[in-house]
Amino acid sequence: MPTLPRPPVDLSPRDRAIRSTLAILAVLILGLLADIMVLGHLQHVVSQQQLTNAFRFELAEGTAPVSEGNVDKVLLTSGTPVAMIDIPSIAVHEIVVEGTDSGTLRAGPGHRRDSVLPGQVGYSVIMGRAAAYGGPFARIQELRPGQQFTVTTGQGEHTYAVIGVRYEGDPMPPALGAGKSRLVLETARGPAFVPDGVARVDAELVSETKPAGARQTTYLTLPLADKELATDTSTVWALVFALQFLLIVELAAVWAFRRVGLRKTWTVFLPVVTVGGLFVADQLVRLLPNLL
After folding, report:
1. Strands 197-205, 181-189: parallel, antiparallel or unpaired by DSSP?
2. What is the CATH number of the domain that holds 128?
3. Which end of the chain is more exposed for a tag (fewer CB within 10 A), N or C?
């Protein structure tokens, strides 16, 4: 006997709501994975090229930052290039930006605002991601005592020698002597995308020490979002807006499907859903640990 076509199933309002929710959730998951594992790496490459051009120009003009303010004594905005770090033994060549919140560290390693710039008297801290957005500090735990690397700032090139790698609970290096400079590199410890702690590399300056520039930010006033493995909730409002946008798109797609069919609906709404999903994913990344 010939098989009779099945009549279309008319879903209940509850089932339609569940289907819409699952569809949006699938878009979010795919968008987040694409943003972190694929597009994030491309974004990192583009950002580093732009930052390199800008920083080299400032070095040539003698306007590269040497404190927390620029040449006009205006507080540096997050994402401003402040240094260039070269660690040949682990293939690191990165522009360091000011600020260490989750959004800022997508562009590259960040200098923690409450510390001096590399090469200056005192402690300097540079934080970098271990896996996402190029994972610039993925291999810093491979560094061994005595290995040297350089950091270039507006005060010149500074050479550091590695003291060692330490984790939570390990003893601190000897206290810093008067007029000395030390750099701490920080990243996430543990499997990629599943951080379970912080790995730190201590390095001693072996070249000439430079005077420290003025700092407005202290450890007590440093925003929580700029500390190790912190998340950034400052743009949650944008995430809410993006989720509302995706919901509206989903409802519009359901309406269009009933009126014009699957093919036309797919053609029109696929690019819109893709852009919306990536925008949501971009905001979700800020809610993930900044050293991820």
Report:
1. antiparallel
2. 2.40.260.10
3. N
